[in-house]
Amino acid sequence: MIQKERILAGAEELFFKAGIRSVTMDDIAKHLGISKKTIYVFFKDKDEVVTALVHQKLQEDKDRMCGIVESSDNVMEELIFMMKCAEEFFSKINPILIHDMQKYHPESWQLLQKFKAEVVVDNLTDILTRGISQGYIREGINPRIMAKMHMLQTEAGFNAILFPPSEYNTWTVQMQFLEHFLYGICTAEGCAILDDYRNIYTTTINKP
C-alpha cells in the first residue's frame, strides 16, 4: 500500500469511529505512526483528506454495485448482496460522520448527494424495473419513486434528532428501514426468498 492510500485508510478508520470534526491531522499521524509533515506532502488540509476519501469510497461503491449486477443470476440476488453490503457499512459507521460532512465539508457532501441522485437512484431504479419483469417486484409501483424514497429513508436514519445515537443503534434503524422497503415492494415469491435469507443470516449470527 502506497503512503497516500495508507493515509486515506487510516483517516477512514478514525472518521468511521469518531466522526470527522473531532479527528485532527495529528490524530491521523499518530494513528499511522508517521509525522504530520508526511501527510501534508499529499494533502494540504483535512478537508482535502475528506474529499479524496469520499471520491475513493464512491468509486469503490460504484464498482461494487456493477460487480453485484454482473455476478447475480436475478434481481433478488442483487438485492440480497446489496443488503449484505449495507449491513457491513452500517455496522461500522458513526452517524456523526454524516452530520460532520454536511456541516463542515460541503464539497464532499455535494459529491455524496450527486452520487446518490445520479448513480444509486438510477441503479436501484433499473433493478426494480427488471424485478417487476422477473416477477419478484410488485407491478404497479413506480421504480424511480421507490428508489428515491429509499434514499430519503436512508438519510433519515442518520438524522441524530429523529434517532439520537444515545437511544438508537444506527445499524438497527437502517436494517429496519431496509427490511420495510424490501418487503413492501416484493411479491410473495420475492418475500419468500427474503425470508430464506433472513433465516440463514439469523442462524449464522446467533451461533455460539
What does this structure look like?
Helices cover 78% and strands 0% of the residues. It is elongated, with a radius of gyration of 19 Å. It is mainly α and 208 residues long. The longest helix has 29 residues, at 106-134.
What attributes characterize this protein structure?
208 residues; mainly alpha; Tetracycline Repressor, domain 2; 10 helices; 0% strand; disordered C terminus
Low-confidence stretches: 203-208
Number of helices: 10
Task: Report the count of strand segments.
Answer: 0
Question: What pattern of helices and strands is seen along the backbone?
Answer: HHHHHHHHHH
Helix vs. strand class: mainly alpha
CATH superfamily grouping: Tetracycline Repressor, domain 2
Give the averaged pLDDT, no decimals.
89
Distance between the termini: 36 Å
Percent helix, as a range, is over 70%
What proportion of the residues form beta strands (DSSP E)?
Answer: under 5%
Q: What would CATH call the class?
A: Mainly Alpha
In the CATH hierarchy, what is the architecture at level 2? Answer: Orthogonal Bundle
| Main sheet properties | none
In short:
The protein has 10 helices and no strands. The chain is mainly alpha-helical and 208 residues long.
